[in-house]
Amino acid sequence: MGEVRNKAALAREAAQAMNLLTTEQKNEALLRMADALVTERASIIEANAIDLERGRANGTSAAMLDRLALNDKRIEGIAEGLRQIVELPDPTGAVLEESTRPNGLVIRKISVPIGVIGIVYESRPNVTVDAAGLCLKTGNAVVLRGGSAALESNRRIVAVLHEALAQTAMPPGALQLIESSDRSSVDEMLKLNGLLDVIIPRGGRSLIQNVVQNATVPVIETGEGVCHTYIDDEADPAKAEPIVINAKVQRPSVCNSMETLLVHERYAGAHLAQLAGKLRELGVELRGCAKSRTLVPWMGEATEEDWRTEYNDLILSVKTVSSLDEALDHIRRYGTMHSECIVTENAERADRFLREVDAAAVYHNASTRFTDGFEFGYGAEIGISTQKLHARGPMGLPALTSTKYVIYGNGQIRG
Amino acid sequence: MGEVRNKAALAREAAQAMNLLTTEQKNEALLRMADALVTERASIIEANAIDLERGRANGTSAAMLDRLALNDKRIEGIAEGLRQIVELPDPTGAVLEESTRPNGLVIRKISVPIGVIGIVYESRPNVTVDAAGLCLKTGNAVVLRGGSAALESNRRIVAVLHEALAQTAMPPGALQLIESSDRSSVDEMLKLNGLLDVIIPRGGRSLIQNVVQNATVPVIETGEGVCHTYIDDEADPAKAEPIVINAKVQRPSVCNSMETLLVHERYAGAHLAQLAGKLRELGVELRGCAKSRTLVPWMGEATEEDWRTEYNDLILSVKTVSSLDEALDHIRRYGTMHSECIVTENAERADRFLREVDAAAVYHNASTRFTDGFEFGYGAEIGISTQKLHARGPMGLPALTSTKYVIYGNGQIRG
């Protein structure tokens, strides 16, 4: 039996014990994990240095190296993240529904851990701790498969966490790290029906699409966001301008940032030139439709490909539309059902947009950047689901639970 | 564009309009559908006769032909099923959560239709109407792919329903029937990401496994049930005997019937011979482990394969165990996480079983046959989920909904 199946089987075995832990036991384990990371930080930074050196030798970009790098402060931040998870309510064990049937059967629907969660992600080592913390807090076992660029860091981190868990009621086997950096180890994970209950991919488009296309284990699809902001002709410029700038510029690399601006032609005629100028000053490259370029001649030309592209960068495509209907059509055609916004003072049109746009999060007069578990008040986030089953939008701890019917009888049989 | 993609695209388009219908409009459409089935029953029975004749020519079993056959009474029953769906509350449009964030954003989580649901099923034509009714009631469009054995019946039924819908606010395009009986039409459906939001398979093991193994669209796995009943040594025989008989004999062909009986050795010593005799009188073939066969020598021998088999027939495998732990181990190893039961008067052991067994439904002193949407009081059932994501156990109308975050702002941007 290879590493992947072997570790998944150990996780499945540990899941049984995980399900029986109390909230206090789980919190105690997470606190021990946090303490151990801080105590053992020197050895983690040492392991991280190996990853960084390999990265440099391979010509990894400075931005990527920065995301990979650990230091005292970052490790303390990661440990603090675990402590924050401790503070969150445990969503398992709740009675969600209860009924007594005419035959006397009492039926309770209760929340339970999912079981074994597989996480496939890229190189940031903080995800290792964060994902582990969220899964373990909810009583799940977890099989982590991180990017090979962070392998030494992840190995040391998991070794430290295992040592911490060995002193608690939580079985260390509930936390498994796949160390094979072979691509086939991901492929194998995707087919482990019976051992893994769900796989959550966290990363770029190609990582996510590989999981969605090849997994036979159920998947929660996360991530891709071609998000739009539509400025209606009845928009208040004092709201529209900061919302657009925030949605594009504040953190362009993330999935809830805006990729396409849709502007009603009347608003565009009056305000687009000024708005485009401000965006350019902030370093944004603009690519517009023909109408937009008539108003802002220095804008580049948007191609069909631009409307479909998640730039994750300081690039914005701009389309001037003649109606709300045209904006809705565009979003229906090119949106990824992530986050969509209308800026308008017209309540009726806002209602129509909020109702008709099919997306995880629809906004009236606010930046799409708010689609986030912390901003929504969940205190945590395992990812942002862009599918419609199980969980949609920012996923907090409850997204890591399933349900179970418990039926109390007194000899009932079916007639 | 072939039939499958074309019809899925039409369903996707109709889903947009479906989402905007009121509950009254949806109910009105369902009532028209019910009336039309009754009015047009002669033409449906005529079409059904073609299927039956083809079935007879192909040597289809009498039992299968009976499941396929329609008559006045059955069509009235099917129409009545639609009227019952009308009576159920509409689960869409509900505000599931609402919060106001410190920055003033109001965040509402509301229930919405999933969008487009694909149903792949076998030959019973009543499923065509039932699945359509449940999906349409919840504001979803539906793409049906029934078994080729019922093709003429399904075509005529869907034509009748389309004529009925044409007189309502509901777009007939929301109901699509794939008529190609080629296996490749199923394969094509399974990959229609973007057009289908979910596929629900309804049928036997091979149909379900084909969907689970090959779909890239999210799937809700249903069905397979290797269900156990464990009789503890502190069981009351007056409860144990009827529960066991009911779970095996009342309707052996369905997924919630019992396939394996686990008996504590002390109970077995006192009662197994009598219980086995009663089961034999009821036509049940018994296949036992060595210990069981010592007590009941006429029992057949159970092989490893028996413990894994969903007989769906009057066959029962029997294992005598020396402890609750051994029973739990057996269920963990061979169960399909469907429905599992303990019969005991010992509350502590019952609690342990209910907590430790990982299944959609766990029973204390009641027949596993109750795992059913109607028995649970949901008034409907689209299937019984045996996976842990989205829905687990009997799925009523709420399982056909997703959620959406609607965020009301006043110019908020992220800091």
Brief write-up:
2 copies of one chain form a homodimer. Chain A is of the alpha/beta class and about 425 residues long.
Structure description:
- The structure is a homodimer of 415-residue chains.
- The first copy, chain A, is an alpha/beta fold and 415 residues long.
- The first copy, chain A, is 43% helix and 21% strand.
- Chain A contains 15 helices and 16 strands.
- The first copy, chain A, has helices at 3-18, 23-39, 41-57, 62-68, 72-87, 126-137, 151-165, 183-189, 205-214, 237-249, 265-281, 290-295, 304-308, 324-334, 347-356; strands at 95-100, 106-113, 116-121, 141-145, 175-177, 198-202, 227-231, 258-264, 285-288, 300-301, 315-321, 339-343, 361-366, 383-385, 393-395, 401-412.
- In chain A, the strands form 4 sheets. A 7-stranded parallel β-sheet of chain A has the order 10-9-11-8-7-12-13, with helices on both faces. A 4-stranded parallel β-sheet of chain A has the order 5-4-3-6, with helices on both faces. In chain A, strands 1-2-16 form a 3-stranded antiparallel β-sheet, with no helix packed on it.
- In chain A, strand 14 (383-385) and strand 15 form a beta hairpin.
- In chain A, helix 2 (23-39) runs antiparallel to helix 5, helix 2 packs across helix 7 (151-165) and helix 3 packs antiparallel against helix 7.
- The longest helix of chain A is centred in the N-terminal third of the chain and has 17 residues, at 23-39.
- The model of chain A has no long low-confidence stretch (mean pLDDT 96).
- Strand 16 of chain A pairs parallel with strand 13 of chain B, so a sheet runs across the interface.
